Amino acid sequence: LEHGQGEIISGVKKPNVRHNVRKLQEAAARQACEEDKEINEENLKDTGLECRCEGVDGGITLICVDACAYCNPMETVCGINSAQAFYDNESGMRTAIGGVFKYEKGMQDMVAVENIGCMEDENGRIVSCETCNVYANNHMCSSCEFQRCADGRVEEMIDCSNVEPGAVFDFCSNVTVSSGLFQTFSDNQFDECLPLSILINTEPTSHPTPAPQDYPPYYYTYSSSSSSKSSKRGKGGVYSKSAKKTKSRRLDD
What we know:
Elements: E1 6-9, E2 12-15, H1 17-43, E3 50-56, E4 59-65, E5 70-71, E6 78-88, E7 94-105, E8 110-120, E9 126-136, E10 139-140, E11 143-148, E12 154-159, E13 168-170, H2 241-245
Antiparallel strand pairs: 1-2, 3-4, 4-6, 5-6, 6-7, 7-8, 8-9, 9-10, 11-12, 12-13
């Protein structure tokens, strides 16, 4: 046997069909990621968006980072956004999306939202996801559930009170958070793309203006339990409001 390549019979190599199929599937996931990378960078070039595709267990992850800082109204708390999508090797399609907000001014914390088991429509937009999870500084919140709002929208009900007392958010309604880990969830805050120079500390310990690549992404343990049947690619979209509030909505503008 020639490892990984197939069985040798009388000097003729018998193809390893499973190996070949797996390589084709991985190529499809990589191609889908690269296509969305180009589309998102073009559509969001005003923010200096930078994207890359990285191989992870079971698929390919698209990671996009705005060359922006997002702040509260007083610009005393600011951070950097990273939006991510997972392309499953088995289907070649996008089956998970997420957003990460990393505070860099006023506090040093990180909030991440992931939606997994997602499906796309014929235009390549996410239309549903099976499960949502929320993390704060790598600690998973107690619960995240999808709910049907009175106006027909599907949004999240999130309970992070195990991380921060009182941190319960119903995204069918306007959310206002004036302090703490989950400020980025607030409506009408952390929305404007500001120069990264705003992150520079005016105290003697100030550091150079960071670039997006200085912020390593938060890697989710994505699940590929649900695969999309669509074969058409479109620009990346998001499903939930909390993921939108970590600015992954910028992939769906």
